[in-house]
What we know:
single chain, 0% strand, globular
Amino acid sequence: MKRKASVSHDEAIVRRLRKDPEFAAEYLRAALEDEDEPRVLLIALRQLARARGIAKVAKAAGVERESLYRALSARGNPRLSTLVAVTKAIGLRLTVEAA
Length: 99
């Protein structure tokens, strides 16, 4: 009996983000709600950028591809303008609401 090749969690998330815009929006929303760990937002944006294609997102955001990789890395510290440009490039936007 042949077994199906397993897919990593990250790859499964990227596939779902690619196919389901509502899931992508909820994924980013959940990342923004994690107040204890701001890096969660960077991880979510990195996954969303991978789902859309890093090079395409970088071009649409007006950022060099290498700079985007650095900004969204585990040690990244992107500017607000970069975060806004990236979310716009992936078809989403950052919002704020009363706590």
